[in-house]
Amino acid sequence: MKAIAVRPAGRRVEIVEHAEPRLQSATQVRLRMLEAGVCGTDREICAFQYGTPPPGSETLVIGHESLGRVVEVGPEVEGIKVGDLAVPMVRRGCLHAHCRACREGRPDFCFTGDFTERGIKEAHGFMTEVVVDDQAVMNVVPESLRDVAVLVEPLTIAEKALAQLWHVQRRLPWGCPPGHGDQPGHCRTAVVLGAGPVGLLGAMALRHAGFATYVYSRTPAPNDKSELVSAIGATYVSSDRTPPARLAEMAGSIDVVYEAVGASRVAFEVMQVLGANGVFLFTGVPGRKGPVPLDTDLLMRNLVLKNQVVLGTVNAGRETYRTAIRDLQAFASKWPAAVRSLITGRHGIEDHQDLLVGRARGIKNVITLSQGA
User: How many CA atoms lie within 13 A of 73 on its CB side?
Assistant: First the structure.
């Protein structure tokens, strides 16, 4: 079968012929892959910044944002049937007995770093025609989400971050005046850094939770992203035209910053205007660039005197996938046009070079792996 792979030793991105997998255990599930999303991680792997093939292989099949159709199940599989739509998880836990996180099914908190990630680290990914994996990593998706379910995995980034936010805020539960809404963030303000897919999905999650939400991105409005932001009831602010101090004046006290841009300079500039008792959520991984000057005294002073929390989070556990599926249904009901507009292009496998190596364009591009399913 065909697959899109990188060959790090030769620095090549290519379509390869890959052995079609078969069920190897009674609890495995076989998927005909329908779609794979293209994200910044895929492009960085194709630029050979990282990405590790499985042991003994010279190639790594890439792709971790995916959607498949179940075509075969093992005799002990429960809760999944042929014909279901499914999104498989990305990370697989380490095998160390002392890693409590992995032993408890939370590989996103792995202590050892010896996890594998499909399409990223020591395991083939989902940009291929057929995938086999265990039922434990499969997440069934309603048929009503067929057109947008490839967004589940990137949405898990925001869902994991918000789960950690609510856990942190047990230290000081946010009290909101009665009669103004029953959503947990309805009297609080959030800023999203970046208007890519992860940022826009994060903005939807924050708006769904009731936060007054500002999306802070470089490109001046109007543009497709600013229109989408307005459609969900959030406010788009251009970082080219509005410095962080002015953003804080517009937004008032900033309770949450959800970073989804991977640019450390912008992130730490905005951290300086985080409000009292605020939480800063890092989800991006910066590329290799030169050092960034920081007023470290100001940052440290704010963290202490304002009781601030800075949190890094990597997606995602099983519960986070379930929450993402549930919330994507809610988003699609509340903002159907906005959710659909996140996917700006669907392309055949033959377009892989342009999508993975060429100039990034649009919001979310998707590679179609099977037709008519």
Answer: 17
User: Does 371 score more than 80 pLDDT?
Assistant: no
| pLDDT band of 119, cuts 50, 70, 90 | very high
pLDDT score for 121: 97
Residue 196 pLDDT > 80: yes
Q: Residue 270: name the closest of 189, 164, 195, 191 by CA.
A: 191
The single-letter code of the amino acid at 116 is T
Q: What is the percent of the chain with per-residue pLDDT over 70, rounded to a whole number?
A: 97
Percentage of the chain surpassing pLDDT 90? 88
Torsion sign over Cα 317, 321, 327, 332: positive
Cis ω before 316 (30° cut-off from 0): yes
State the Cα–Cα distance between residues 118 and 61, nearest whole angstrom.
8
- On whether the CB atoms of residues 364 and 342 are closer than 8 A, the answer is yes
Residue 337 binned pLDDT confidence (cut-offs 50, 70, 90): very high
Q: Contact, 98 vs 41, CB < 8 A?
A: no
Q: Do the beta carbons of residue 365 and residue 347 sit within 8 Å?
A: yes
pLDDT band, residue 372 (cuts 50/70/90): low
Of 216, 255, 210, nearest to 237 (Cα)? 216
Q: What is the mean predicted confidence (pLDDT) over 172-176?
A: 77
Place of tokens 């507009």: 341
Q: Is 44 helix (H, G, I), strand (E, B) or coil?
A: helix
**Is the distance from CB of 112 to CB of 142 less than 8 angstroms?**
no
DSSP 246-298: HHHHHH-S--EEEE-S--HHHHHHHHTT--TT-EEEE-----S-------HHH
* Maximum C-alpha span of the chain: 63
Which residues, 6+ apart, have CB-to-CB distance to 353 below 8 Å?
13
Structure tokens at 55: 């042991």
**Residue 160 — φ and ψ, nearest 5°?**
-65, -45
